[in-house]
Amino acid sequence: MSAPAIVILSPSALPVAEKIKAATGGAIHVLAARNVLEHGSDGARIVFENAGEHIRSLFAAGTPIVGVMAAGALIRILASSLMDKHSEPPVIAVADDGSAVVPLLGGHHGANDLARVIAAVLEVQAAVTTAGDVRFGVALDQPPQGYVLVNPESAKAVMAALVGGARAKLTGSADWLEKSGIVFADDGAVEIVVSEKAHEAKADMLHYAPQVLTLGMGCERGADAAEAIGLAEDLLRDNGYSRHALAGVFSIDVKADEAAVLAVAAHFGVPARSFDAATLEAETPRLANPSDVVFAEVGCHGVAEGAALAAAGAGGRLVVAKQKSRRVTAALAQAVKPVDVSATGRARGKLFVVGIGPGSDGWRSPEASAMVREASDLVAYSLYIDLLGHLADGKIRHDFDLGAEEARVRFALELAGQGKTVGLICSGDAGIYAMAALVFELMDRGGLSDAARRVEVQCTPGISALQGAAARAGAPLGHDFCTISLSDLLTPWSSIQ
Fold it and tell me: 357: which strand partners?
């Protein structure tokens, strides 16, 4: 869950908002008309003019909202926006004086947990009203990380039965269930199954798949994505495993940008991670099919089996040995507990090349803002990061002086090559007299590490200065036009002439 927007309408709410900000890392949003900024401003607040429009826009963008205001005000503002409880972000109302914390929406999407965090710092009790949380201490339709509810359509009926006093039969085991307030019995009227195997869906049963399966894949360069997906599907189905138990797709680092491997991860909705050859070679004693041919090619005796086992960890075991299609290999391992993929292997790095426009928030696109929010690191001329205001909060800054553009871009690519999500920030449009062209030129020219050359690059357009100036002047660009930069910093003056 991303950091929340802490919305306040009056200066009296500021002390409570500051405490919430310290506990959650959220940004404080203030109503300009109430002059909140005059009361202890730290210069890091977002000002809005219309409370209803601003809160609804935050909600539509999926931003968690903590309104330090009357619950009724939040309800009335968002009433027309309520469509689907499964996609609503958390919304929490907090009393101006911090005496009450009430999760209103998104209880099972983080609101209840966030409310408890806020309540703890304010030294009050969160008013959690979700039936499952209150009665059993768990949200059955929103299991903890590492578990997937395979048949959510049955959740309402099963929870209603349990709240009504029914007992449950537990097949399999999970600490979070066994420690809950649910009464279990062998003759329970409803059943809760915890298993990595596929099960027939039933109206009186909930099936939780622990994400303990790790899919290792190898392939020839340029292998067909459909072939790789088909092999993975066959591997799971033929061995009776639920696709929901898959934690991730794993391979060797030279395949970090392989389209077929990435397509399999996208197909199952799980992360793709990679390991270096030395890590995979360490798994050789556990391989079912070690290969000298593979070792000669990539430096380890098995990619598919080795990657699956490396991801499953020391206690894991190979459950499906290497299977091969025409150009793809795959194997399946099982870990002893759900796999924390974020701490397993290396993610493919991602570089966002972001044009933020001439500098005004109003001229920055929603896509550009979304990329900045997703990035863990920001690389740019210092002023450009400063222009981002609150969007840069919590990000690791890598400030560069004006000039040395190639060094800046090379640094951003190498940083992304470490598996990070990096925002390379440009003013105007990144593709017009800015860094986008240099990114692709360096990747094409060479001289980068293998990891840096395999990162995913996404560019987003921005309003250029020429567009901004034209809009203020009238419509001077309404027909054919061309632009010529008079800067000879990167282009020789003779070429400009």
Answer: 428
